[in-house]
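INFO  loader      accepted 1 record
INFO  loader      residues=151
INFO  predictor   begin
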Amino acid sequence: MRHDDVLVLVRYRLEQANEALADAEFLLAGLRGPRSIVNRAYYAMFYAVLALLQSVGEVPSRHSSAIGIYDREFVLKGAFAKEYSAWLHRAFELRQTTDYRVQELPTPAEARTLLEKATAFVGEISRYLEREGYPPALGQASEEPKPTKES
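INFO  predictor   done
INFO  writer      dumping tokens
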């Protein structure tokens, strides 16, 4: 694939991530259901991972594959803190639970916490891609603090 095509795809995925974050923030501000907030927060993280993987020529077809490649190629090699991986795994688990197990709903506090972590996660991937020479997406996530041991 041509480099220009990769740039377009990376930017598109980052824009999707930022749009999902904005949707989640809108839902949270409107006191909407935590399930929808969790869904949008997870997808923000997932789209950011897809942008990252696209930048290295990886295009997985499953969510679990994308998460596994992210862990193997970026977290284990030290490009991202292990806490980010834990956040992504928790988001995936929570989204699976809320989407497919009708009786298990997230609390508003869980949804709010996940959105905060998703915002930091997307921001960190965006900054990483910028350092790697990829232009920022329109509506890029704002600078957020890095994870701490309490995360």
